[in-house]
Amino acid sequence: MQLLDYTFEEIEKIVLDLGEPRFRAKQLFEWLTKGAEFEEMKTLPKSFLDKLKEKGYTAQAIHIEDVLVSKLDGTKKYIYRLEDGNIIEGVLMKYKYGNTICVSTQVGCRMNCAFCASGLDGLIRNLTPGEILGQVVAVNKDNKEGKDRAITNIVLMGSGEPLDNYDNVTKFLDLVNSEKGLNISMRNISLSTCGVCDKIYKLADDGFTLTLTISLHAPDNETRETIMPITKKFKVEDIMKAVKYYFDKTGRRIVFEYSMINGKNDNVEEAQKLSRLLRGVPAHVNLIPLNYVKERGLHSASKDNIKTFMDVLNKNKISCTIRRTMGADIEGACGQLRRKYLKMGE
Ligand code: SF4
What we know:
It is built from eleven helices and twelve strands.
């Protein structure tokens, strides 16, 4: 049982059930949020820590196994080991305004998008709230350099479809947003989904006012079905209705991700279709040069095609940027590093 899975109120109950004074809960919660193992919790008596261990509790849910640092831009790629031996990965990107961590929400993914390494093995399992929070806590500890908090922004864009693990992901959001914890504002959190529409409505109804990012990658169902199998269940029109609902409820502008794939979705006609689809929608489009994944065999659109695509969107007054490639020298695409790491162990 991982203590990082629990809210402050739940920790308080555990502490009281063990016959300890209430104030120990605050101390324990603070140590957990700092990424401390039991041995590092200097203000807590050994007898209390022994009781926790006897009950089968562990402090940190994940452990950093390896870190790769980009020589180009300082981006760090993390490999984490979970308690059951599974391996997941994450990224820390350093920007002028702060540090953004990209977290995984599942081991593998069942959505099987045509360009993605994470879906190659299917879904292995969901991550618990503490395993998602553990990534933030561990990387925060690794990068604090004297500051209270190194992480300013979180993007749920690593391996896994966050809305396919709804309960654990939303508990993680509550935990990371908690004033008693890392206290990271919803405004600084982005959740990227391939378009699980029923859960987009639920996210809005449950009051999560984060930046919703839609992995769209095609402006029509025909093209999108060849890239993203989820399109068979939720059509582009369903996604547009769901994001309108999300915007009306939260007032947050929607971000659309569009990976530029050579010969698939990168021509002028598609740019025109995308412009029509997004007309009047409070949206921003990120055009992403595709990261090459050997097993998938798809290549990025050319620089010229990406630039022309952006010009069409701009002409149609759609806000749009081309995503800067970060950490290109250390295995770019999500899921790639994990697979490489697993192969090394074979
Ligand atoms: S792009 Fe996202 S939803 Fe699609 S397979 Fe990869 S991790 Fe899953």
